[in-house]
Specification:
The protein is built from five helices and 13 strands. It is of the alpha+beta class.
């Protein structure tokens, strides 16, 4: 199996924390983490939107790709705390290059929200050690074309009765040849309980066959860089390139459609005019740019061009 690197971005915002009936006064914190199945080789990067400089108890922070909210004190029943903390999770995944959209549809993304508590001011000196008292996991039904846009109240368990309102947005933002190394699940691993191995970069071994199809034969050393793929191989490459471009363009359209809907529903928001991208016209332009590449050019130059046309086009970005 040859692979393609896909990048999905999740934007998460914690809005309000409402104490319905917490039993204990003290200091609370919410921690958010994105979970990806270990069967999918991936790299995860968490950041806090707009944060500059060092963190403190009064601000959110990132610890081992989990985002910690600021520490807040709860004193009264039905007390409400405004958090308004935004975070981003950027996930790079290795996907089956022949079924990219299906692989993204099947990815089981989960958002884990943990509630931590201490009544000791001294323990605030070691924030990571503050114990967890309740946890909730949200299954994120991500669709590569439509993205994901949800606003939900998350209620913790009966013994720690409280609610945090959460907004989650997600979108596919990139598809290209693997550019970074990925840890792969070792033998016997299940749901992250096995060893992760760096392993060789298997995807680069068969990426040319993915682009040009099963009928492509890698040139021998005597043919060198002058080997020209057959017409069938070229047609396969054109279709593969078109499918990936269409997926990205539809992802962009899905994001634009949701943005327009929100602007119409909430007219008080700043009305930023975004250029609407014509999927059909842009797709035709991208395909045309690739097909004008001389078919007599060596395979390795065409192979390089297929990704340059795909990713350097301003329409994609």
């Amino acid at each position: 199996m040859s692979e393609v690197q896909g990048t999905v971005e999740f934007s998460v915002e914690l809005h309000k924390f409402h104490n319905v009936d917490l039993f204990q006064r003290g200091y609370y914190q919410i921690r958010a983490g994105l979970k990806i199945p270990s069967r999918i080789p991936h790299r995860l990067f968490a950041t806090i939107a707009g944060q500059t400089g060092d963190s403190s108890l009064c601000s959110a922070c990132v610890h081992e790709n989990n985002v910690y909210s600021r520490i807040f004190q709860i004193l009264y029943r039905n007390e409400e705390i405004i958090l308004n903390e935004s975070m981003n999770f950027r996930v790079h995944l290795l996907l089956d290059g022949e079924r990219v959209e299906d692989a993204l549809n099947e990815a089981d993304f989960q958002l884990k929200l943990d509630l931590h508590f201490t009544d000791s001011e001294q323990q605030l000196r070691d924030v990571p050690a503050i114990p967890m008292i309740s946890s909730r996991t949200l299954c994120l039904h991500f669709h590569p074309r439509r993205g994901l846009h949800h606003h939900v109240p998350v209620m913790f368990d009966y013994f720690h009765l409280s609610v945090v309102s959460v907004t989650v947005h997600a979108s596919l933002v990139a598809l290209h040849q693997p550019l970074i190394s990925f840890a792969r699940p070792g033998k016997g691993s299940w749901l992250g309980k096995g060893n992760l191995e760096a392993g060789p970069d298997q995807s680069s071994m068969s990426l040319e066959n993915l682009v040009f199809g099963a009928g492509y034969c890698k040139p021998t050393s005597s043919e060198g860089s002058f080997y020209v793929p057959s017409e069938n191989c070229m047609q396969h490459a054109y279709k593969w390139h078109k499918d990936l471009c269409l997926l990205l363009l539809n992802a962009q359209r899905g994001l634009h459609t949701y943005y327009t809907l929100i602007m119409n529903e909430i007219p008080d928001l700043p009305q930023l005019k975004l250029e609407e991208l014509s999927v059909e016209e842009t797709l035709s332009q991208l395909c045309m740019e690739l097909q004008v590449f001389p078919s007599s050019e060596p395979a390795h130059r065409f192979f390089k061009s297929i990704f340059q046309v795909h990713w350097d086009s301003p329409a994609i970005h």
